[in-house]
Amino acid sequence: MVYTVLKWYVIDGNRVVYECLNRADNPEPAAPPIDFPSFQIVDYAGGGKWSREEDIWVMGR
């Protein structure tokens, strides 16, 4: 399962930009969770709907 922790966000008009930490359960017993940050850019279209989403994943090396 993947859990998401919001780190920060900025709202500029109809656009929301935010960073979150994605945390996944480690398949190895007793091992720590696997964490990786990502940035999202979403544009609000109105009427409770989003018109665009861009995901930028920052994976470990």
UniProtKB/TrEMBL annotation:
This is Uncharacterized protein.
